[in-house]
Write a structure and sequence with these properties.
The complex is a heterodimer.
Chain A: H1 2-7, H2 14-25, H3 32-48, E1 51-56, E2 59-63, H4 65-78, H5 87-114, H6 117-132, H7 135-146, H8 152-157, H9 163-173, H10 178-208, H11 213-219, H12 225-238, H13 243-284
Antiparallel strand pairs in A: 1-2
Helix pairs in contact in A: 2-5, 3-4, 5-13, 6-13, 7-13, 9-10, 9-13, 10-12, 11-13, 12-13
Chain B: H1 13-38, H2 42-65, H3 72-84, H4 91-98, H5 103-118, H6 122-127, H7 130-157
The chains are: A mainly alpha, B mainly alpha.
C-alpha cells in the first residue's frame, strides 16, 4: 500500500495522499460495519478496563484498553469468520485514521498550551532529547550488520521509520534501492508490532527504571502518533497526579518530532548512519543475506 | 490508478463534509467510551470532542489550502496550543470542555481503527524474517530510551525536581 502510494509520485505527502484518496472519493461514513465494529470494540475494552499483571515484587505490567481494541481490530480483520471486516473496511480505516490522528494531536496540543510555561523551564531537555533518537544508529546498526544486512541497514536503523522518514529515504536513495527496502521492512514490522511493543516497554520501564516522569513523557514522542499514544498510556497510569504535564510534554515532543525531527533525520541521522556503516561494515559485516536484486529481507 | 487524487488538488466541499461526518462518528464513539471508562458527562464531553474536531478540521484544511509543504500535524499542534494559552479569551472554555475527554479514550478508539487498518499489512509482515523483527524492536527501544536518558540527564542537570 505504502509502496503503491509512493510510486504514484508525491513522495512528500504520504499522509495527505492516503487520507484524500480514501476519504474524499469514497463515502466512508456510510460504512456502518466498520464504525459499528469499532464502537463494539471500544465498549468491550472500556468495560474490561486496564489489567495490571504483577511479574515480580513491585514490578507490574499494565495492559490498557487501547491495546485490546487494536489487537481485536487486527483479529477481526484476519478472522475469516468475520465477513463484515474485509479489505475495504481496512482501507477506509487506514484513511480515517490519518484524520483521527489530528484529534489526538489536538488534545495533546491543548495540554501543551495550558502548560506553556514548561517549555521555558525545560526547553533544553525537550530540544536535546530529540537527539537521543540517534541512539538507534549506534545500537541497531551493528546488530543489523552482524545479522547479515548490507545497505538495507541504513534505511532500517537510521530512524523510527514512519511515513515522514520513509519519504526521506525514498527521496534520497530511490524507490528500488536497498536502503528503501530496509525502511519498508522497518515500516511494516513497526506497523504490526510497534505499538504493542512500545506499550509493554513503557509499562515495564516506568515501573523498574527510576528516570524522571517527564523524561518518560518526552521520550514517548518517538515520531509516530500511535506509538506515542501507546507509550503514554502506562506513563499516565503510573503518575496519575502529573497527567496534564505529561500530556503537555508529549505534545511538545510530538511537535518537535514532526518539525525539527525530520531535519535531524535528513542532516544528522542519515549521514551519521552512512559514516558508521562505512566504518563498521568492513569490520563486522557478514555475508549478505539479501541478494542485490532480491525483493525482500527474508532471512 | 483512476481515482488517484493529487495531494495538491484543492479541497472540494464534498471532501470537507466527508471529514466532518467522519469526525462526528469518531466523536460519538469516543464520548461513549469516555463515559463507560471515566464517567465524564456525555454532553460536556461531546462539546470537548467538538472543539478537538474543529481544530483537526482547520489543520487538515490549512495543510491543503496553504502553499507551504507543512504537515497538518504542525498546524493542529499550533492551533491547539494557541487557543489554550493562559490569557487567551478562548482558553477557559477550551480547557474546561477538553478536560472532559480523556486522552486515553481518544487513543482507545483511534487504535481500533489502526488495528483494522494494519490488517492489510499482515501478509507483508509475515513475509519478513525474524531478523527484521529483531532490528525493529532494537530501533524502537533505542529511540525511546535514547531520548528518555538524554531528557533525564538534562532535567537533573538543570535541577528540575521530580515533581
Amino acid at each position: 500500500m505504502l509502496k503503491k502510494g509512493l510510486q504514484s509520485g508525491n513522495v512528500e505527502h504520504p499522509y495527505r495522499e492516503k487520507t484524500d484518496k480514501r476519504i474524499l472519493k469514497k463515502n466512508p461514513w456510510r460504512d456502518y460495519r466498520l464504525h459499528g465494529t469499532v464502537l463494539l470494540l471500544v465498549i468491550v475494552a472500556e468495560i474490561i478496563g486496564p489489567i495490571e499483571i504483577p511479574i515480580a515484587k513491585g514490578v507490574e505490567v499494565i495492559i490498557m484498553p487501547l491495546l485490546y481494541t487494536m489487537v481485536l481490530g487486527l483479529v477481526f480483520y484476519l478472522d475469516k469468520n468475520i465477513q463484515w471486516i474485509q479489505r475495504r473496511q481496512s482501507r477506509i480505516a487506514e484513511g480515517a485514521m490519518m484524520l483521527f490522528i489530528g484529534v489526538l494531536i489536538a488534545k495533546l496540543a491543548v495540554s501543551s498550551g495550558q502548560s506553556i510555561h514548561l517549555i521555558f523551564e525545560m526547553g533544553p531537555a525537550l530540544l536535546l532529547q530529540e537527539l537521543g533518537h540517534l541512539a538507534t544508529i549506534f545500537i541497531a546498526l551493528p546488530v543489523a550488520l552482524l545479522l547479515g544486512f548490507k545497505r538495507e541497514s541504513i534505511g532500517m536503523t537510521s530512524s523510527i521509520g514512519r511515513e515522514p522518514e520513509v519519504a526521506v529515504i525514498v527521496d534520497k536513495y530511490g524507490f528500488n534501492s536497498p536502503e528503501s527496502r530496509g525502511i519498508f521492512a522497518l515500516f511494516i514490522v513497526g506497523t504490526i508490532i510497534g505499538t504493542v511493543f512500545i506499550s509493554f516497554l513503557a509499562s515495564l520501564s516506568v515501573s523498574i527504571i527510576p528516570l524522571h516522569p517527564f523524561a518518560f513523557a518526552m521520550a514517548s514522542g518517538v515520531g509516530s502518533a500511535s506509538m506515542n499514544a501507546a507509550s503514554l498510556g502506562p506513563t499516565l497510569a503510573a503518575f496519575p497526579n502529573l497527567e496534564t504535564s505529561i500530556e503537555a510534554f508529549a505534545g511538545f515532543s510530538n511537535l518537535l518530532s514532526f518539525s525539527i525531527g525530520i531535519y535531524i533525520v535528513i542532516f544528522i541521522a542519515v549521514p551519521l548512519t552512512e559514516k558508521l556503516y562505512a566504518y563498521l561494515e568492513p569490520k563486522i559485516g557478514r555475508e549478505a543475506i539479501v541478494k542485490e536484486d532480491g525483493d525482500d529481507n527474508n532471512g | 490508478m483512476a481515482d488517484f487524487i493529487d495531494g495538491t488538488e484543492n479541497v472540494t466541499v464534498h471532501g470537507i463534509f466527508n471529514w466532518i461526518r467522519l469526525l462526528i462518528i469518531f466523536s460519538v464513539i469516543t464520548v461513549i467510551g469516555n463515559y463507560i471508562g471515566y464517567k465524564h458527562p456525555i454532553g460536556e464531553a461531546f462539546i470537548g470532542m467538538g472543539i478537538l474536531s474543529l481544530i483537526t478540521l482547520a489543520g487538515v484544511w490549512l495543510e491543503r489550502e496553504l502553499p507551504f509543504n507543512i504537515s497538518s500535524i504542525l498546524y493542529i499542534s499550533i492551533i491547539g496550543i494557541v487557543i489554550a494559552l493562559p490569557g487567551m479569551p478562548t482558553s477557559k472554555f477550551v480547557l474546561y470542555y477538553v478536560s472532559k475527554i480523556e486522552l486515553l479514550s481518544i487513543v482507545t478508539v483511534f487504535l481500533a481503527y489502526v488495528g483494522i487498518g494494519m490488517g492489510k499489512s499482515w501478509d507483508e509482515f509475515k513475509a519478513l524474517g525474524w531478523k527484521a523483527v529483531i532490528i525493529t524492536i532494537l530501533v524502537i527501544a533505542s529511540t525511546y530510551y535514547g531520548s528518555a536518558i538524554v531528557a533525564h540527564i538534562i532535567l537533573v542537570l538543570t535541577g528540575v525536581p521530580a515533581a
